[in-house]
Amino acid sequence: MIPWVQLDTAKTPDGGQELRLKRRGAEFSIMLGSNELMNSRLSGSEEALASLTCQRIAGRSQPKILIGGLGMGFTLRAALAELGADAGIVVAELVPAVVAWARGPMASVFGGCLDDPRVIVREADVGQLMRSEASAWDAILLDVDNGPEGIVHKANDALYSLAGLNSARAALKPGGVLAVWSQGPDSGFTRRLKQAGFAVEEVKVRANGKRGARHIVWVAINGLRPAAASAKL
User: Fold this and answer.
1) Based on the structure, what is the number of domains in the chain?
2) How far is the C-alpha of 84 from the C-alpha of 69, rounded, in Å?
3) Is residue 195 classed exposed, middle or buried when 0-12, 13-18 and 19+ CB atoms within 10 A define those classes?
4) Is residue 8 one of the residues assigned to a domain?
5) I need a labelling partner for 17 at 20 to 30 A (CA). Which of 26, 62, 174, 197 fits?
6) What is the mean pLDDT of residues 172-190?
7) How many CB atoms lie within 10 A of CB 35?
8) pLDDT score recorded for residue 134
9) How far, in Å, CA of 131 to CA of 169, rounded?
10) What are the distances in angstroms from CA 52 to CA 128, 141, 148, 205?
């Protein structure tokens, strides 16, 4: 059996933990301690995050998409395949090393998608980008940490709080889509989405097409009801 080889390490944004990039033949893995965050052989649920979103904004002219988390590029590649030439996608990635890995040792996994003229990669906090402009995005896709119950960066919790969801809704155009990937279900997060004024669908997807672990994608539509900014769960 081909052994795993560690290629590089990077600190998490809070500096308290270490990400490790590993390779075994053509397979790549990003680890946090003993937890595997991503594997290049498992792309189904990340691709579903993009396809479920793009289906709901089909027909929009010059759609603007914000993706939180570059990962191994599966969501980005799937979105590019679904969207037309007039689309614009901004990818926010908080860990500079992840962007460097995408352009370096994992370039074969990304397949040149970072060079697509529709794509801009920002080494930035997706939450800050959401808060910087109102009614700007047709869709916001969050594949940050492991979902609402994240393990990489505690500051990510703010994205999934009621205040964070209100910020996401304010950043979306009317009828825009907030899509959120998670390793597993979270009934409290579903309630917060509804409390923030979204119409919510919770979709079960598989890690690798029709096989593998069951993950969750929330598809939340920006409705017309005012968000409950002061409510708490």
Assistant:
1) 1
2) 22
3) middle
4) no
5) 26
6) 94
7) 12
8) 92
9) 10
10) 25, 10, 19, 10
Q: Domain containing 84: what range?
A: 43-222
Q: How far apart are CA 10 and CA 14, in angstroms?
A: 11
CATH number at residue 158: 3.40.50.150
Q: Tell me if 156 sits within 8 A of 134, measured CB to CB.
A: no
183: its two tokens = 């390793």
Does residue 6 lie in a domain region? no
Find the length of the chain: 233
DSSP string, 94-144: S-HHHHHHHHTTTHHHHTTGGG-TTEEEE-S-HHHHHHTSTT-EEEEEE--
Q: What's this model's pTM, rounded to 2 decimal places? A: 0.91
**Rounded mean pLDDT, 186-195:** 94
